Amino acid sequence: MKFRKLQRLLRVFFPALATIGLAAVLLATIYYTLLDWQWIAFLGGVLFAALLAFASRASRAEWLVARRSAQLNQAKERLAHETQARKNAEQAFLNTDERMRLIADAMPTMLVYVDAQQRFRYHNRAYREWIGLSPERIEGKMIRDVMGEMMYAASERAVAKALAGERVDFEHTHTAPDGSFHRLGVTYLPHFNPQGQVLGFYGLLTEVIDHRQAAEAPPAVRQFIDSEVLLTGNPVVVTESGGQTLYLSSITEQLTGWSNPEARLRQALERDEFCLFCQPIVPVARTAGAQTFYEILVRLQEEEQNLAPPGAFIPVAERYNMMPVLDRWVVRHLIEWILERRRRDPQWQPTMYNINLFGPTLSDPKFPAFVLHQLEARKVPPQLLCFELNEESALERLPDASRFVVELRRAGCRFAIGGFGAGKVSFDSLKNLPVNFLKIDGGIIRDVLTNPVNLAKTKAISRVAKAIGVHTIAEFVESAGILAKLQELGIDYAQGFGIGRPHPLKDLP
């Protein structure tokens, strides 16, 4: 290293030193040769050549400096252009990223991105609101820490498959911190780099549960549903085409032990192995004439023992077209309970009872006659019964539903439309379905404090309902804040875990 430095110094100073040396030799020669012109001419020529070489080298050095300076200026200009281009690209990326985040936050579908280390790197507003955590408690955190042990255990295998590069579709049901439970359709999409390596995966989560069934779940059922792995150790993984069938099979065979679900349900009906539960529907404002009434829910007696949720036998009953039979069982046993309660206390004053009817029952031409016969035979006032029709099911069978409503309403029974506003809010159905109550879908009510669209929907439904003389019921009321907002909006009745949880009808005072 020192030798190289010495070489560089010699290349710089050697011409000057050589010129000075030649000048000294010339002077010494003149002095010792007594002005011998031959030596003086020879040494002068050598000195002139040395000076010429020194000037040439200095000129070349100046040329190199000028050339390098020009190159440096060009490099500075290119760097400035590249720096500005990078800033423009970064700004364009930030603008695009901001637009994408706005779009993602407006999506009703929950969207997350998880890296290869299973840490959250993106989460939209729908996911944050659903899981109930602030952004700082999600960003960069492990899946296990954000979702909790039970929920993580149910999806651990699906996460592993996604990080192995496989698309995964499955359904998952769990209980939220507020006590409500949700059934989700989940898709994990792997994210690859150009070399084909998995960098992480995108998760898309969509709620697919019917909130009417969610309200029925007993605590023991929710404990099972939180994990979905208590018996099998695996989540319920489904394909896009066969998900419902596989879900039914998983629930009925693995959880209840039913090898023949249809025969088991028919046996339960024959042996009266179902039981009635109820959930209160209370007036939001204590106005004159308003009173609490109850929604009637049906369960199997073995649910608590076998951890079979309401969603187990109801889809099976629908699949085997047993809903009209089950609805008859509910009507008959509710009327029998009213008679028994009246016998025990002649002074007892019954209220109104809301019975959910399923779609196929609306197309059963003999069902209205069955209801009227039960009421007349037991001398029960028809106004005690309010039949709730799901809006979507009623519209699918509009002619049948219209005849059904007109026939029983003429006798004195009351009617409600459930799940109202779940899609596009339209009051056209009321032209053919004269009802007494509109039950606003729980998906709207649950977010009425945070979602301006849902707030506007609720306000519009309340205003139009009052104009046409129909009472409104808000379901999925989970907090005092929601109840206060409903009172402000003029909603008539409220139902939900924040009002009262389902309990056996026999325990009703």
Number of strands: 15
* CATH topology annotation of the largest domain: TIM Barrel
Shape: rod-shaped
User: How large a portion of the residues is in β-strands, by DSSP E?
Assistant: 15-25%
Unreliably modeled segments: 209-252
Helical residue percent band: 40-55%
By CATH, the superfamily of the largest domain comes out as EAL domain
Question: How would you characterize the overall build of this protein?
Answer:
The chain has 509 residues and is of the alpha/beta class. The chain folds into three domains: 2-76; 105-225, Beta-Lactamase, CATH 3.30.450; 273-507, TIM Barrel (Alpha-Beta Barrel), CATH 3.20.20.450. It is 52% helix and 18% strand. It contains 19 helices and 15 strands. It has helices at residues 2-32, 37-106, 125-131, 143-147, 149-163, 211-214, 219-225, 243-255, 261-270, 303-306, 310-319, 323-344, 359-362, 367-378, 391-396, 398-411, 442-445, 452-468, 480-489, and strands spanning 110-115, 120-123, 168-175, 181-192, 198-207, 236-237, 274-283, 293-300, 353-357, 385-390, 414-420, 437-440, 471-474, 493-494, 503-504. An eight-stranded mixed beta barrel has the order 7-8-9-10-11-12-13-14. Helix 1 (2-32) packs antiparallel against helix 2 (37-106) and helix 12 (323-344) packs parallel to helix 14 (367-378). Mean pLDDT is 77; it is low at 209-252.
